[in-house]
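Incident review: delayed structure delivery

Summary: a single-chain prediction request sat in the queue longer than the usual turnaround. Root cause was a stuck worker, restarted by the on-call engineer. No data loss occurred. The affected request and its eventual output are reproduced below so the record is complete for anyone auditing the incident later.

Affected input:
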Amino acid sequence: MDDSDRANMALISATGVSRHVEGPAGRLDILDDVSLEVNAGETVAITGASGSGKTTLLALLAGLDLPSSGSVRLDGHALDALDEEARARLRLRLVGFVFQSFHLLPALTAEENVLLPLELDGAAAPLARARAALASVGLAARGAHFPYQMSGGEQQRVAIARAFVHQPRILFADEPTGNLDHHTRDAIADLLFRLNREHATTLVLVTHDPVLARRCGRIFDLVDGRAVAHTA
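Output delivered after worker restart:
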């Protein structure tokens, strides 16, 4: 598939995706025949009750896991046709992640955490880019601090800077405000949507917060393992 073909396709596409696991009580169906498309630059929320499969779906869309049946395409690439190493390379090129628990490396400073994806990708001028990313989230003066020296909101800002530093086309965010107080939660949400606009990044957001979900252009609500789409 060439670049012109990809330009006419959805950036993220899931077709008939199901996911089940085998447990002591037998087979557990988590997702059942989910199909959706996300176009470049869109903001999309994935909602649903606890245990409805939101994080599972996010992992499948990002190629962190493979479906039991069905297919996922990321920028035109069929993820089930790629081995784990090739999927990792594709994520490094296309994707940024923000998680509820920040996932910062505690032995590294804020600046060093943000540097990681640039160093893995062999990017030019990594230090200047890392410092610019920290400045963009309001943490220019905190680069030498370790995660334990920072508040939860500051740690999440570092995680967002790390996610955006290599200018990904897609940002996957899994409950990015879930561990924060009300005031900090609103500030982090504002930051995510501001950076989404500034970088024209596609945002796919898992959340149980209906207010945050309604800030997205579309919502996919998971009910009984299936995705029900509606506008926010």
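Verification: The helical segments are 3-7, 54-61, 84-94, 110-121, 126-136, 152-164, 182-199, 210-213.
Action items: add queue-age alerting; document worker restart procedure.
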